[in-house]
Amino acid sequence: GSTYSSKVFRVTFLTLAVSVAVPLLGVTVLLDCPIDPQPISLKEPPLLTGVLEPNTKLRKAERLWENQLVGPESIVNIGDVLFTGTADGKIIKIEDGEIQTIARIGHGPCGGREDEPTCGRPLGMRVGPNNTLFVADAYYGLYEVDPDTGETKTLVSTKTLIEGQKLSFVNDLTVTRDGRKIYFTDSSSRWQRRDYLFLVMEGTDDGRHLLEYDTVTKEVKVLMVGLRFPNGVQLSPAEDFVLVQETTMARIRYYVSGLMKGGADMFVENMPGLPDNIRLSSSGGYWVAMAAVRPNPGFSLLDFLSEKPWIKRMIFKLLSQETVAKFVPKYSLVVELSETGSYKRSFHDPNGVTVAYVSEAHEHNGHLYLGSFRSPYICRLDLQHV
Known about the structure:
One of its GO terms (cellular component) is endomembrane system. It is a single-pass membrane protein. By secondary structure, the chain is of the alpha+beta class. It has 6 helices and 24 strands. The chain has a 4-stranded antiparallel beta sheet, with no helix packed on it. A hairpin with a 5-residue loop joins strand 10 and strand 11. The longest helix has 29 residues. The termini are far apart.
């Protein structure tokens, strides 16, 4: 009797499973998918050994101004005064521990992702030669901000057509020492910042990605196209090339003016994570903050999905970006590269205990200030004691 009942159970269970799965599949096929993912070929991630060996060095960082600011993406200094831009559209000055809003490029209300396009989102930030601030706002464009008065001046607006196209996702910038030229990234011509996960998952090379603004002639030139999610940018110390982080491809390219577009241009390939911002280190190299890691040994979701567009389609037919973001492991990683692109050292916080999400590592006076695109604090790491 028991084998008969287990058979009946199996048949009933299978029938039930099929009767649920088939309509579900049918519905899934009919559902619209917001993205059109492309297969991407990534090499197997580098082994986390040697200088990349996991550690807990980032846990030695202290959290500053916790819950007093939200998503301080990029950080700059004028003397000991800190400046940053936050997720609620503000440009903030922190002097003697006091936080003050000095400017906003957009306007309220600011809150959820639907407010972002009007609220604005200051991302990359730099200091020019006359202590002026240069700010890349994801939705509004390139701005100059007076750090004392908070007066803002538009340099390049996202409403302006550049070679027949508007900017869609202005991300980071780097400025020559004389302040004459600003190199900046437009991460996509299809997605805005609030849809950055769509941009990563779609994997298309749809933007004009490195641009140059001449502050004297007011001209904008498109220098590089066809990158997948170009993000952080940094001029080399000698200003003879510009480095551009290509987030989706886990690599850094370089651009040399005068070289043919897309000429010999790979700086670092197959990184252990998805690079966000890049800044100079005092040793003549570069600090790179990883927005997400590609664990090896371990399971890298990004690598697993890279050549399976159909799974990505299913995921985004059924789940929101916010839900998908929850599956990205909290693991913070900052690497220091030499001037030639080799790894010098790495600071980790597995599970993001102290430093949860890191977008930028900015060195100042022997400390590393860690910006974040979503944490409610800035972290500071004493480089003498790691």
